[in-house]
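Can't paste images in this forum, so I'm doing it all in text. The chain is below; anyone willing to post the predicted structure tokens underneath?
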Amino acid sequence: MSCTERFSGSAIGAGTGHLSGWGRLGGWICILGLAIGLTGCQPRVNQAPPPPPPPLATPAPLPRPVRPTFYVTINRLSLRTCPGLDCPKTSTLELNAEVEKLGEVEKWTQIKVKKDGTIGYVSSRYLAPHPVEAAKFAKKKPRKVKHRQAARPPEATGEEGEAGPKQQGPSPPIPRVM
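Text version of the structure:
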């Protein structure tokens, strides 16, 4: 008698209600064998490996903070390591050098030079929001000077007066100190 026949009930005695042959333990073994056999008999489907997950979208870069642009208003402005005249100089900025304002401490502004990325402090009074025009030095034409004739006393003009013209004599010698 096969396992399948035992499970289907053909081995059950007429009216007895119990399994013949193997007993109750045999029935369970038969069911277990049937379950194992059925799962092993299923056709295997060759499936392609699952597609790789889509690449993660790279997050958009954070926007750079907008920093105001300023321009140096004098020639040879000292860029310093800290806010104060006693701080060492790191470089010198030329007229209309473009800088970004990073912060402000009292009368000093922390800046970043756009040309080379140097960071330092400058006096706030030498920065402007717009470039300044360089002073144009043009040769000036000499002005004609009008000589004013001062009113001369009658003695100096040589006119006769009560005292008459004065004549100046030689000056006395200067004493030497030894």
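Strands lie at 69-72, 77-80, 89-93, 98-105, 108-113, 119-123, 127-128. The first helix runs from residue 3 to 8.
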